[in-house]
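Trying the structure run again after the queue cleared.
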Amino acid sequence: MSQVSAESEATQETTEQAPAALALSIDEFAALEERVLRAVNLVKRERAARTAAEEQATQAESKLAEQSMRAEQLQGEVNTLRAERDHVRQRVERLLSQLDALEV
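Done. Tokens:
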């Protein structure tokens, strides 16, 4: 009879532990669910950040192309102005040499 009562007590302990184990697993499941939700939110934020970074990179590339074209235009203008300056300098030097010739 003691063997039957021992088995009976073991069965009662197992059934009493089952709700506690079940409660623990529910808590573990809730914690896992929370971690999964945080991971999903993190992935969403990272995707949004990547999209924003790609848009910024595209805008920066277009601005760079525009500024590059503008820099080429400005360089052309600088070259033209230097050529004009040299031409004006030559004319002024010629006029000065003619004035010097008149004074002699």
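Residues 2-103 form the longest helix (102 residues). Worth checking whether this holds up in the mutant runs.
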